[in-house]
Write a structure and sequence with these properties.
four-stranded antiparallel sheet; 8 helices; elongated
């Protein structure tokens, strides 16, 4: 099935004619997926991410609702014709057509958004958020907050051991996002040991933003888990491709 995608733009100063991409709208069949700067998946707007756009949060929200309404009611052509009707700071243009969509359309929308929309500099992301981003870019669907059976000691009862992500119904690959510090590494090793006490542990991938680690101490830092888990650098430019190779 083919897909059409559109850019939503804002031109803060109409005299200067300098549009800025603030959103992506993807149409695949009857499905419409919208991604906008500063808007999370629940539709809540983060005002801090709107700095530099040049409009108020309430104005921005009303336009986001306008584009969503036009997309979901079969009147998207009206959104495309905004500049023809009256000068406006907001507009939508056709970005392109993709002849064959592979995988879930929402992952395609995420990729187009990351490529086409320039975001303001963000605060440092938590490893869990970085991991979710890499998983989405790699188009890998996982279960979150999974539990594996384990024992903290040989003579203690079996208990559920928490991990961040599991791939497949049997969690044949388990993924954990963590900070590159000794305490987090030690805690992961403790949980791996607990799972191994009740049988063979699944394949485990430790996902860490290694740019935050002291490179001179990296080998010592990772040594407790490198024999028990694959290591993925969340900060690597090819992290998504690396992850795909690791789980295949």
């Amino acid at each position: 099935m083919h897909a059409d995608w559109y850019l939503v733009q804002i031109t803060a100063d109409l005299r200067r004619h300098e549009p800025r991409n603030i959103g992506v709208v993807l149409n695949v069949g009857e499905q419409w997926i919208l991604r906008f700067r500063g808007v999370d998946r629940s539709g809540k707007i983060n005002g801090r991410l709107l700095r530099g756009i040049g409009v108020s949060k309430s104005t921005y929200q009303s336009w986001i609702e306008y584009f969503a309404r036009k997309a979901h009611t079969g009147r998207w052509s009206e959104a495309l014709s905004i500049p023809e009707k009256r000068p406006s700071n907001f507009s939508a243009i056709h970005g392109g057509t993709i002849m064959e969509v592979a995988g879930e359309p929402r992952f395609l929308a995420d990729r187009l958004f990351s490529e086409m929309v320039t975001l303001p500099e963000k605060p440092i992301q938590a490893p869990l958020d970085l991991a979710r981003h890499v998983l989405a870019e790699a188009q890998i669907e996982v279960h979150e907050r999974i539990l594996l059976p384990g024992r903290w000691d040989l003579d203690t009862p079996e208990v559920p051991i928490p991990f961040d992500f599991g791939l497949g119904e049997d969690h044949r690959v388990t993924l954990e996002a963590l900070s590159p510090n000794p305490l987090a590494i030690s805690h992961l090793r403790t949980r791996i040991d607990a799972v191994e006490r009740v049988g063979k542990a699944p394949r485990i991938i430790a996902m860490l933003p290694l740019n935050r680690a002291d490179r001179d101490l990296l080998d010592d830092l990772l040594r407790p888990v490198e024999q028990h888990a694959g290591i993925l650098d969340l900060d690597a430019s090819n992290a998504a491709n690396e992850l795909q190779a690791m789980v295949s």
